[in-house]
Amino acid sequence: MGWIFGVDRLSDIVEDMTGHRPPIFFRLCWKFIIPVLSVVSLILYLVDYKYLTLNDYVYPDWAYALGWTIMLFIILMVPLWAAGQMCWTPGTLRQRWSILCRPAEGPSPRRSKKGEETVELTTSAVTS
């Protein structure tokens, strides 16, 4: 979250919701501590991997293959979609990256007299 979305953006959103900026401890956790602990946890899991058993029953290899396939399918959907969008969007690589990283139409922030940022939300209702 801290590396992809950005700690500053996340802090701004928390401040918008709560009215208070998150403490530096949370910012450090989001940016450094949580990613390091996640990678260490994954490495330790893979190093000490043991086959799943239930009492004396050891699950067959096809069950592991099915489980890993389902997991990879779920995890790889977002990167594969992003790669597809990079291929199908017209323009140079830099232009495609810029277009795809820009948010779609959304609320436009405005500054009030006190310097606070306000957002105007508009909706279009369809009546029949």
Short characterization:
The protein has helices at residues 2-18, 24-47, 61-88, 93-101; strands at residues 53-54, 57-58, 108-111, 117-120. It is mostly helical.
The radius of gyration computed from the alpha-carbon positions, rounded to a whole number of angstroms, is: 22 Å
Poorly predicted spans: none
What is the number of helices? 4
Quote the beta fraction. 5-15%
Question: Can you give a write-up of this model?
Answer:
The protein has helices at 2-18, 24-47, 61-88, 93-101, and strands at 53-54, 57-58, 108-111, 117-120. The chain is mainly alpha-helical. The strands form two sheets. A two-stranded antiparallel ribbon has the order 1-2. A two-stranded antiparallel ribbon has the order 3-4. The longest helix is centred in the middle third of the chain and has 28 residues, at 61-88. The chain is flat. The model has no long low-confidence stretch (mean pLDDT 81).
List the helices and strands and how they pair.
Elements lengths: L1 H17 L5 H24 L5 E2 L2 E2 L2 H28 L4 H9 L6 E4 L5 E4 L8
Antiparallel strand pairs: 1-2, 3-4
Helix pairs in contact: 1-2
Descriptive tags:
128 residues, mainly alpha, two-stranded antiparallel sheet, 61% helix
